[in-house]
Amino acid sequence: MPRYPLPSAQNEGSQEREIPMVGTHVTIAATNSGKFDSYVASPMSEKGAGVVIVSTISGVDSDMTHYADALAAEGFVASAPDMFWRDADSGPLPWTDDGRKRAFARNDRYDLELGMTDLADAIANLKKHPRCNGKVAVVGFCFGGPFALLAAARYGTNAGISFHGSHVENHLDELDGVRCPLSFHYGDRDEVAPMTAIERIREAFGRLADAKVYVYPGAGHGFMTMTRGHGYIESVARSAWARALEVLRKLQA
């Protein structure tokens, strides 16, 4: 098992309990024809809540599989679907000049509503996993942020978590359908999700019973992405991850 540079225990410095896990790729049938891949990491013996990870625009790269493995080591069943499978330029893309250009281009081509049907299929697939206790949360990174909110509003998921989610403010009109905890995390120097957008989200979340927005001073976009060579801030990632785990652990009962 790799060493996770993120907190596994509830308290910093407490003894971590790493649960044996296994990771594999599965094929999910799409409602609108076709099929797509998802990386699934699960505990080897225990049951736990399911977590669908919606990736950054880079796709299911080593950061995303790392977080899936980290969740499985915590006792969750994590699924990271390839949300870009419909695009001719599918799969994970490197965070190079060319990779970024291609990632932004396919993001511009992305059909959100088709993506939501893929997410529904990924959720349904995860609920059938023998290690899943039937509860499912959605965790979105960057591009995946809106999916955490929309899945809660439309599909009745059990929690929605977002790390530096982009364009979440464009979907606040769907908050009335949310009946679960939301935990969204931003940096105050995020050029993709500026403070004006974050304040709109915070104000709208104030109408809900259990929706929190955390803002980390000095952090920019991508503070959770470890392999990009910039943006990642370990201290912020640890704080945000610990808060996310607090929400997710409530689904383990």
How would you describe this protein?
The chain has one domain: Rossmann fold. Helix content is 31%, strand content 23%. The chain has helices spanning 62-73, 97-109, 112-127, 145-155, 195-205, 234-249; strands at 21-29, 35-43, 48-54, 77-81, 132-141, 159-163, 182-187, 211-216. An 8-stranded mixed sheet has the order 1-2-4-3-5-6-7-8, with helices on both faces. The chain is globular. The model is unreliable at 7-15 (pLDDT under 50).
Task: Provide a short characterization of the protein structure.
This protein is of the alpha/beta class and 253 residues long.
List the SSEs and their pairings:
Elements: E1 21-29, E2 35-43, E3 48-54, H1 62-73, E4 77-81, H2 97-109, H3 112-127, E5 132-141, H4 145-155, E6 159-163, E7 182-187, H5 195-205, E8 211-216, H6 234-249
Parallel strand pairs: 3-4, 3-5, 5-6, 6-7, 7-8
Antiparallel strand pairs: 1-2, 2-4
